[in-house]
Specification:
This protein is an all-alpha fold. The protein has 21 helices and two strands. It has helices spanning 2-7, 22-50, 55-77, 98-105, 112-134, 143-166, 178-197, 200-204, 206-218, 227-231, 250-278, 284-300, 314-322, 327-342, 344-350, 355-378, 387-398, 400-403, 413-419, 422-438, 444-467; strands at residues 91-93, 309-311. Strands 1-2 form a two-stranded antiparallel ribbon. Helix 13 (314-322) crosses helix 16 (355-378).
Amino acid sequence: MRAREVDVDPHRKHPVDETLPPARMFTSGLQHVAAMYAGVVAPPMIVGPAVGLDPEETAFLMGASLFTAGIATLLQTLGFWRIGARLPFVNGVSFAGVTPMIAIGKDRGADALPVIFGAILVASVLGFLLTPYFSKLVRFFPPVVTGTVITLIGVSLLPVAFNWSQGGNATAGDYGSTRNIGMAALTLVIVLVLRKLLRGFLRQIAILIGLVIGTVIAVPMGMTGFDAIKDAGLVGFPTPFHFGAPQFEIAAIVSMCLVMLVCMTESTADMLALGRIVGRPADARTIEGGLRADTLGSAISPLFNGFMCSAFAQNIGLVAMTKVRSRFVVAAGGGILVLLGLCPVLASVIALVPLPVLGGAGIVLFGSVAASGIQTLAAAALERGENALIVAAAVGVGLIPIAAPDFYHAFPDDLLVVLDSGISTGCVVAIVLNLAFNHLGTSRSSREGRAEADTEPDTEPDAEAEVEPVAPARTAT
């Protein structure tokens, strides 16, 4: 077959390893930063006031999070030794740690931050040591599991886009107003029209162009202002141990270790999803390198007053939509994040994008992730055995935190770290049911036959992905 003949060409660069012209590299990387910016600064915006920080100190915490997210992203995309997935994989502050960090900081004030940073440091080092063993779980992620998890990633992110579309702050007077939702709808329409009309490189950065147009429209409507730029400094290095040297408390460490396991589970699922989208399936070695970058980035982060780092699934949607698969584009985004952390005035420019505008674009981005998951499920042989039942149960459990946010309100706070993540609970259910129905009590030959049948539909699309450097055949937008 033609695809297989090309696939064995040792001199051909995979699209993941291709570099683009500098201008395209910068604008495509900036698009990734725009897609993730709100997600990076949101945790420090929540945790800072919760532990009693004033606006200036909270802004410092936000800058530190941008800086450390950039370092973690560079570790993932460029890598060294056995560290880094070397995929277009974005890292940033994990939302999974917000609730435990607030619980640690209760009644402590700003003195809680050294305890939080100490717990993150220990959890990250332990996670780094666990990566060789954790990465071997990849064999428990056949298409029926990965398709389920990828779908849950996209569906779980959509409420974030809906919240942004309403204004982002549920206590604000204009939250959910027709103006906010109308602005989000307008941005969504702009992005869709741009994707339809534009061609070539401009089509690939349609999200970025849509964000710029949406922001320009929002200015005369009073939905954004320039005060943040006026108040921001030109240079602001995140001084190490700004809030004090790390402190180590057992309860806090145990809590953050649970968060680390959640982050590692989600990152594994995200790497599998991204590997399929870019046409370079993530094997155990790739996942091990990716988890090492995750945990090393998280260990470095508290030294510069940042929080635990993990994969940003929303950027997977951007890769799926734009079909720009170069890891160096995301590395450029990591470099931009570092600059934003070092230059508050630049960070404030990105912050000009109103959340409703970002929410309108986010609906397309996150929906693209869910569409990729559905495409994977279509090739997962759901008619065989109990595969359809596995998907039904895993998706049902994974949707509980979305459909009924207070469902687990009576459970201990430590369990909520896992239960409140639909991605983690759905992933665990899918793995366990796959083991129960497709592995336990079956012969080795039948398991191998079932695995071959499950993976066969993926062979041709992935081979075609090697032929077309711009658009992988398995990616649907």
